[in-house]
Design a protein that fits this description.
The protein is an alpha/beta fold. The protein folds into 3 domains: about 220 residues, FAD/NAD(P)-binding domain, CATH 3.50.50; about 120 residues, no CATH class; about 140 residues, no CATH class. It has 16 helices and 18 strands. The mean pLDDT is about 95. Bound molecules: flavin-adenine dinucleotide.
Length: about 500
């Protein structure tokens, strides 16, 4: 980096190039602000990063997205950001984009479109038609209370009705029916939000479920294209992105405003406003513990993160395993909320299966991703090690052995879903909680960041504004995780600088 760029004062300095950082950067650059994004890794995108081994491309934190049918929320947000027509997308099967599968081999397919979904569920559980209709109506009603989700800035809002945030997902679904299988089917994709029985609010379930019902798509040849397209778009609007820039501290003026951030290599970036796309706890460390009120710091530091994951990627021998244009949520327990609270000997009881769509492979799958739950405590022994491409480090043989054992357990379980699959596998790779911790820069490899809790909804809410007058937050810890949730968070962050009504009108007009 040249001296001249170091001395430039940007309107916005954004720490982290996850989706939240890149989306904010684009929104602000499109409004004419000068913006720089600083990323610690060799690759931009955070969870949007992919990696390749033996000529196969593996997604790390995005397997499919919802809300992409014409006119739906994410479709419109991506259109406004100028990337929609540049993304290579594959719509999942209309009659089965997700399949909820149980240990007894029974499968229940989710269909796209709320009415289609409802009718198909009723065909599985005709005697439960009333409960299913009530559930679908509640999904729609709950989502209608989140104006931005519906590209609105006013109207009936969850803010005026705290009961929306306090309704628990498990309790609400259980209140609809005594049919345990139906309860499990309705919450069967709860790995999407790492659902915890007495904590996950129904609104989290509803916002995510409804988004997938309104257009579920995979990214052809990998999800990193979102980050690539956003970075191209940003550069076209004059924004800059620098990789290998790990922000470690900030300098302040005598009014308590940040003047510049300091990178690990000593470089500094001056700015008027600063946005952190990094986990709030890490943000507090970077910007100085002493700069935050104890009450805020203590609350944020005490918040529980969602569990981490052990993500297994297998590649297949040519033309052996047929591509699945849907995902599977496999539950070996008759309680879809139970797999997160696992016993080591029976792990994994719950996992997500998907085959990425690789254009040159056509009918056959190139690889499969299997996402399981894993507590960070399982990799505690190696917590003192660190390894990324940008900061290479070594973990010992015991760690490699741990990973191999866990991979073998996952593949053994997978055999019960796809008998004979082991013989089709060419290579196996995996990412542990430590991989996610190091690449994303959070405390413990959490999948979705701070966990929302229906019993204390306000305590688990993170505001985009902080007590430091020119420090703002964005990303999955703000509104909601996931591609849609983080995109919405970016808009919420930017409302501090751009008129809300005008901005959302632009999104609608895009
Ligand atoms: C296994 C897994 C599967 C998922 N699958 C899906 C899915 O199929 N669909 C979906 O919608 N969502 C999915 N998600 C969730 C989704 O990927 C995330 O919610 C979202 O991408 C998070 O974006 P973010 O803006 O919060 O930033 P993050 O992705 O958390 O990125 C933060 C960025 O900040 C950088 N950074 C950290 N510290 C520093 C520092 N000190 N200096 C500079 N840079 C720094 C990091 O390197 C990173 O690039 C999945 C998540 C996981 C873990």
């Amino acid at each position: 980096m040249q001296t001249s760029a170091v001395q430039k004062e940007y309107d916005f300095v954004i720490v982290g190039s996850g989706l939240g950082g890149l989306a904010c950067a684009n929104i602000l650059a499109m409004e004419g602000y000068s913006v720089v994004v600083l990323e610690k890794n060799h690759q931009i995108g955070g969870h949007l990063q992919v990696y390749s081994r033996d000529k196969s491309i593996y997604d790390t934190g995005v397997h499919y997205v919802g809300g992409l049918d014409k006119g739906e929320n994410l479709h419109q947000f991506f259109k406004y950001l100028g990337i929609l027509d540049k993304l290579k997308l594959k719509r999942l099967d209309n009659d089965r984009f997700d399949v909820i599968r149980f240990g007894d081999g029974c499968e229940y397919a989710y269909a796209q479109g709320i009415e289609h979904f409802e009718e198909q569920l009723i065909s599985y559980f005709p005697e439960e038609a009333a409960a299913i209709r009530t559930y679908c109506a509640k999904l729609v009603e709950t989502c209608s209370k989140f104006p931005l989700y519906n590209l609105e800035t006013s109207g009936e809002s969850y803010l005026a009705d705290e009961s929306v945030l306090a309704l628990n997902a498990f309790d609400y679904i259980a209140s609809l029916t005594n049919n345990i299988r139906l309860r499990n089917v309705l919450a069967g994709s709860n790995l999407l939000y790492a659902g915890v029985k007495h904590k996950t609010p129904f609104y989290v379930h509803a916002l995510i479920m409804k988004s997938y019902l309104t257009g579920a798509y995979k990214f052809i040849d990998g999800g990193s294209q979102i980050a690539i397209q956003l970075s191209r778009s940003l550069r076209q609007h004059g924004g800059q992105i620098f990789k290998y820039k790990k922000v470690v501290a900030a300098n302040y003026d005598d009014k308590g405003r940040i003047t510049e951030v300091v990178c690990e290599n000593g470089e500094t970036f001056r700015g008027k406003e600063f946005i952190s796309n990094v986990h709030p706890v890490v943000t507090i460390d970077i910007f100085g513990q002493e700069r935050f009120l104890s009450i805020y710091k203590n609350r944020v530091q005490a918040l529980e993160d969602s569990i981490s994951t052990f993500l297994v990627h297998v590649s297949f021998h040519d033309n052996t395993f047929e591509y699945l244009n849907y995902n599977i949520y496999q539950h070996h327990l008759d309680d879809v909320w139970g797999g997160i609270d696992y016993d080591k000997p029976t792990w994994p009881q719950t996992y997500f299966i998907c085959t990425p769509y690789i254009s040159k492979k056509g009918k056959y799958a190139d690889s499969m991703s299997i996402m399981t739950y894993m507590n960070a405590s399982e990799t505690e022994e190696w917590a003192g090690t660190f390894s990324t491409v940008a900061e290479p480090g070594k973990r010992n043989e015991a760690y490699e052995q741990f990973k191999k054992e866990r991979e073998a357990k996952v593949i053994a379980k997978l055999e019960s879903v796809f008998p004979g699959i082991s013989g089709m596998i060419k290579a196996v790779h995996s990412a542990s909680p430590l991989t996610f911790r190091d690449y994303i820069g959070n405390r413990n490899g959490t999948m979705y960041g701070i966990m929302k809790d229906s019993s204390s909804p306000l305590r688990t809410r993170i505001n985009t504004r902080t007590k430091i007058p020119n420090l703002h937050l964005t990303g999955q810890n703000v509104s909601l995780h996931g591609i849609l949730g983080v995109t919405v968070s970016a808009f919420v962050t930017c409302f501090s600088f751009i008129d809300k009504e005008q901005l959302i009108q632009k999104v609608k007009n895009a």
